[in-house]
Specification:
Chains A, B: InterPro entries: GntR_C (IPR011711), TF_FadR/GntR_C (IPR008920), Tscrpt_reg_HTH_GntR (IPR000524), WH-like_DNA-bd_sf (IPR036388), WH_DNA-bd_sf (IPR036390). The structure is a homodimer. Chain A is mainly α. Chain A has 2 domains: about 70 residues, Winged helix-like DNA-binding domain superfamily/Winged helix DNA-binding domain (Arc Repressor Mutant, subunit A, Orthogonal Bundle), CATH 1.10.10.10; about 140 residues, Four Helix Bundle (Hemerythrin (Met), subunit A), CATH 1.20.120.530. Helix content of chain A is about 65%, strand content about 5%. The first copy, chain A, contains 10 helices and 2 strands. The longest helix of chain A has 25 residues. The first copy, chain A, is elongated, with a radius of gyration of 19 Å. The interface between A and B is medium-sized, with 26 and 28 residues. The structure holds a DNA duplex (30 and 30 nucleotides).
Chain lengths: ~230, ~230
DNA sequence: ACTGGACGACTGGTATACCAGTTACAAGCA
DNA sequence: TGCTTGTAACTGGTATACCAGTCGTCCAGT
């Protein structure tokens, strides 16, 4: 029962993430522990904890006596982060292909195949969700606790760089779906080299998409804006 | 002048790291914010901040109402951790070889060359110190902040896995020195492929050394213990 | 001797108050 | 007008006190 217990700081974290990525705050202006506290109706200490967590995740930068600033990412950073991602996730892919898919990955792969037969029958959201699940299951399939932990950290730490608006054009989503299916087949066939190459191409393509996106709308925060809460 | 300002929480962090990796605390027993605070003569809040930082670095695990536990790495994880290390440090090596050595790395390389001409003229410790510095400078030479941060996290989180007794037989240290020199030359020559291959071999050899060591003395933590401070 | 439950001494989580830096701005001087 | 300067309203950092969980221990009842 203690598992379901939730602390104020967790709630604060979720709310602040919504504010930042939901575009309800101006990224140029510093956040303030006290103002957030008042706005969210949560004590200052939990808010502070949440901000420290976001700081470690690279989302925010705390400057003592000056304020807490929302960080942005440069195109150079994006490229370097994706290089990092390539290094780790290709390793995971190779390992997964040598061991074969885990039950979760197999399940995911089956659903991808179904979707691949007629992508137009599914919404972008449905396809995208399975895609996310696929990436997670793949990491788990690698069967290396340290690697899994490392990837989790990377995703958290460079969250801003990985952040994408949830739904693209259906056409693009369908293409990505096909890439996932090809990847899955390579893993199921125990072809480490093929799988690794596919993953590398997949991720590089992802970087391009992300870079284009960054070029077209520098302030990425606005893209998913659902400012459902403004003042409380 | 504000740059040199140091907070209590920074001091607490340093001291706690010393305690944990210096072997002055029993890894099996939980740490306590209050006891650490009293022991270090630092307030509880800075100690708490430091522990949260260590938690995000994967060194420690906080269990509410139960305690703060030091995380360990199992011997089984060793191979996987080194695989991880290979993935990241080879990437760094490749990048460094493409960009050429940074001033710090060049300086380090020059000293390595001098030592390489007559290793017997130097102590194991001297050679080993420059070797450590070499690895650090190499990461910095890669010129990728995300990568550098990731490597730092990895070394911290799996510090126990990387942990080696400081001084081996001089003969072995001299061999490692030669590997470092070869690596440096490849980087200075801007030969990414050669450098990457050398690094891979270097790290795999390191894993073998570490595995042999683990076989001969399972409780590796004790090896560097210098419990210079116990109570304050 | 054994079991069950209450009590007390812990744990981390949070609230409040205060501290020391930083910054913006307005009043006063050149 | 333009620059200096001091003050007031911020900022995050820290101390202290108290809260609610957890868990060992010890005693009562079997």
């Amino acid at each position: 029962m203690a598992d379901t217990f939730e602390f104020e700081s967790d709630r604060a974290y979720g709310r602040i993430v919504e504010l930042i990525f939901g575009g309800a705050v101006d990224p140029a202006k510093p956040l303030s522990e006290r103002k957030l506290s008042e706005r969210l109706g949560i004590g200052r200490m939990p808010v502070r904890e949440a901000l420290r967590k976001l700081e470690r995740e690279g989302v925010v930068e705390v400057k003592p006596a000056r304020g807490t600033f929302i960080r942005t990412v440069s195109a150079d950073d994006l490229t370097e982060v994706y290089e990092l991602r390539e290094s780790l996730e290709c390793l995971a892919t190779r390992r997964a292909a040598m061991r074969g898919p885990s039950p979760a990955l197999a399940n995911c792969g089956a659903r991808l195949r179904v979707m691949g037969r007629d992508p137009s029958a599914f919404t972008s959201r449905e396809i995208d969700d399975v895609g996310t699940e696929f990436h997670d299951a793949l990491i788990e399939s690698a069967g290396s606790t340290p690697l899994e932990e490392m990837v989790r950290f990377m995703r958290m730490r460079f969250r801003l760089a990985f952040h994408l608006p949830r739904y693209f054009a259906h056409e693009l989503v369908a293409e990505i779906l096909l890439e996932h299916i090809a990847l899955f087949e390579a893993i199921a066939n125990r072809s480490p080299d093929t799988a690794e190459d596919l993953m590398r191409a997949h991720l590089r393509r992802g970087l391009q998409i992300r870079l284009d996106l960054d070029r077209s709308s520098p302030n990425l925060q606005k893209l998913t804006s659902r400012p459902k809460e403004n003042i409380e």
